[in-house]
Write a structure and sequence with these properties.
Blueprint lengths: L1 H11 L3 H15 L3 H13 L3 H14 L4 H13 L3 H14 L3 H16 L5
Helix pairs in contact: 1-2, 1-3, 2-3, 3-4, 4-5, 5-6, 6-7
């Protein structure tokens, strides 16, 4: 538990690479814990390891398909990879599950990007 809390603190301080190192022993014993995968995914996202972040968030959704925050942050991760259609799908689901204004804003942002991107005409 101490290592997990330390990793949380490091992610909050925007020190994701250190957080990933701290989480390594936690993963050995708790890789099936949603909170561990979510924190790991955030650390990967903040360190621009988008594919690894995506896999961690997908693991969270395997464990709990109704986790709207995991869908939101997965959508943001896909967006950072330029995978806008996939991102929109996740953001739509997240906004449907949780009508928080921040979720609606994220969905509106991705819809605007798709609408103005000539690849999607």
């Amino acid at each position: 538990m101490e290592a997990f809390r330390r990793a949380e603190s490091l992610v909050a301080q925007r020190r994701p690479l250190e957080a990933i190192r701290v989480l390594e022993p936690v993963l050995d014993i708790a890789s099936d814990k949603k909170s561990v995968q979510l924190l790991l995914g955030r650390a990967y996202l903040f360190s621009a390891q988008f594919r690894r972040a995506e896999l961690a968030f997908l693991r969270v959704l395997e464990l709990d398909p109704s986790d709207h925050y995991a869908r939101l942050i997965l959508g943001r991760t896909l967006q950072r990879q330029g995978r806008l259609i996939e991102a929109r799908t996740q953001l739509r689901l997240a906004a449907t599950m949780n009508p928080d204004p921040a979720y609606q804003e994220a969905l509106g942002e991705i819809n605007a990007r798709i609408a103005t991107d000539p690849r999607f005409e």
